Amino acid sequence: MKHALITGITGQDGAYLAKFLLNKGYKVFGTYRRLSTPNFWRLQYLGIFDQVELLPVDLLDSFSIIESIKISKPDEIYNLAAQSFVGASFEQPLASAEITGLGVVKFLESIRNIAPDVKFYQASTSEMFGDNQFTEQSEETIFDPSSPYAAAKLYAHNMVKIYRKAYGLFACNGILFNHESPLRGLEFVTRKITNAVAKISLGLEDHIELGNIDAKRDWGFAPEYVEAMWLMLQQKSPDDYVIATNETHTIKEFLEVAFDFVGLDWEKHIKIDERFMRPVDVRYLRGNFQKSKSDLGWEPKTRFNDLAEIMLKSDIERWDNWSNGKHFAWDAWNYPNEKKILSRKLKLDR
Ligand code: NAP
Ligand code: F7E
Fold first, then answer.
1. Do 124 and 175 contact (CB within 8 A), yes or no?
2. What share of the chain has pLDDT > 70, as a percent?
3. Which fold has domain 3-180+220-243?
4. Separation of CA 98 and ligand 1 centre (Å)
5. Which CATH number fits domain 189-217+247-284+303-349: 3.40.50.620, 3.30.70.20, 3.40.30.10, 3.90.25.10?
6. Which of 36, 207, 310, 325 has the CA that lies 20 to 30 A from 316?
7. Where do the structural domains in the chain lie, given as residue ranges?
């Protein structure tokens, strides 16, 4: 039986990848970091919490990384852990560099020293292209990072290439464009919108505060993107691949589709708030996935409108169920604002 070690198994991609690999018959080990409140809701939501082996690892701590490799004896390592929120990287540039950039080198060094035959997947990102052009981006496009997050990811990306060349490691960079799902964190714009539209449609809230709604993103569906990660590690030789849909849409278009779905006019429920503007934003992303299609046989299936609908339906169902007294694994309950809305609603109902 093959062993996989997934860092960041508590995150969106980590949870979907764990489910995907379990279905393929892997023994799955996943790393989590010590928090004052445990955060396993995604694994519980997918019904796989009892099927994965959890190992405590912080990317700030090299010894915990080495220990996780020794215990799990992996054939494949998927490094998904990161400080992944671009907005927060402007507020915490040093922590972002340490975790998202240097953390990867700690893994590469550990592998080189104790497990040189392991296959390694690194979660690279379209953010590395930065705010540099208004045409599609591919593996050949020049990187020009526009945030501390993107700069840290580019450092990691380059180190993966260097370790591949210098030491012959089987290490791949997946340059993934934005991918979303009902398990997306609430701070990211798509889920922030579907969560708010759900509340607005149920009369629990009246508007949503956003930043730059003119930015364009290439949004795909996360469960399809984790399959691409696995496919990269099944090839004869390691390489870097773009994973995307080749479609791009503004935040405004996402708002339009989401509000349309519940029969409301988005413009009546939006407030632009400076707090959500970034010092620099990436205005245009659209990925060319031709290399992945020809080498990996991968292509996206779920498109923009369907993605918004999947996310919205799931958030409406959650708010509806929770306000009717049903309890299940969910993130909203951990956020102070969401908690207040629910408490108010439950008091009113009593
Ligand atoms: P996510 O939901 O934010 O998950 C990030 C994971 O990293 C969580 O499990 C988090 O743990 C863990 N983590 C954070 N800091 C850590 C630390 N110091 N030590 C150990 N673990 C730590 O992100 P995602 O959307 O699943 O993305 C997965 C990866 O792909 C990330 O590296 C992200 O940067 C990259 N990426 C994402 C996208 C996208 O659109 N989703 C696109 C391109 C690349 P907690 O649960 O404890 O916070
Ligand atoms: O922002 C704009 C914001 O935070 C998308 C991460 O997974 O994908 C993600 O990074 C756009 C930006 O994702 C709000 O300014 C407007 O232009 O959902 P996001 P991101 O920054 O693209 C890449 C590929 C990753 O690698 C990252 O890990 O939406 N926007 N108003 C807003 N964004 C947020 N979060 N909140 C707003 O209120």
1. yes
2. 98
3. Rossmann fold (3.40.50)
4. 14
5. 3.90.25.10
6. 36
7. 3-180+220-243, 189-217+247-284+303-349
Q: What confidence tens digit (pLDDT) does each residue in 248-298 have?
A: 999 999 999 999 999 999 999 999 999 999 999 999 999 999 999 999 999
- Cα–Cα distance for residue pair 276/273, rounded to 1 Å: 6
Centroid of ligand 2 to alpha carbon of 103 (angstroms): 22
Given the CA of residue 124, which atom of ligand 1 is nearest to it?
44
Residue nearest to atom 19 of ligand 1 (CA): 58
Active site (catalytic) residues? 125, 127, 149
Q: What are phi and psi of 67, to 5 degrees?
A: -60, -40
Q: Is the CB of 189 under 6 A from ligand 2?
A: yes
How far does residue 156's CA lie from ligand 1's centre (Å)?
14
Contact between 66 and 110 (Cβ < 8 Å): yes
* φ/ψ of residue 31, rounded to 5: -100, 145
